[in-house]
Design goal:
The chain has 88 residues and is α+β, with helices and mostly antiparallel strands. It has 2 helices and 4 strands; from the N terminus they run E-E-E-E-H-H.
Length: 88
């Protein structure tokens, strides 16, 4: 099951972005999705996530199940594949 969670600062309460991952697997730097207008540091593997605003420590809040966008917002090709062919 895929999950999404807000990355929130312990010090100032700012939400820097979200993390998307699978239940029971470690969080990786490439699973961090910055929020709109993010101007904080870029994270490399092995580095800890920090607050964009004050560089304070962060925690994950509001963990919810995540449905991949491919299922919730099908592409035109997906919609056309499910549509019955037009009568000639």
């Amino acid at each position: 099951m895929e999950l999404t969670a807000d990355v929130k600062c312990y010090f100032c309460g700012h939400i820097s972005g979200q993390v998307i991952g699978r239940r029971g697997q470690p969080i990786r730097a490439d699973s961090f999705i910055p929020g709109p207008g993010y101007a904080g540091p870029q994270f490399s593997p092995g580095e800890r996530l920090r607050c964009e605003r004050c560089l304070g420590p962060v925690f994950l809040e509001d963990v919810t199940p995540f449905i991949p966008s491919r299922l919730t917002n099908p592409t035109r090709a997906d919609r056309d594949a499910r549509r019955p062919p037009k009568a000639a």
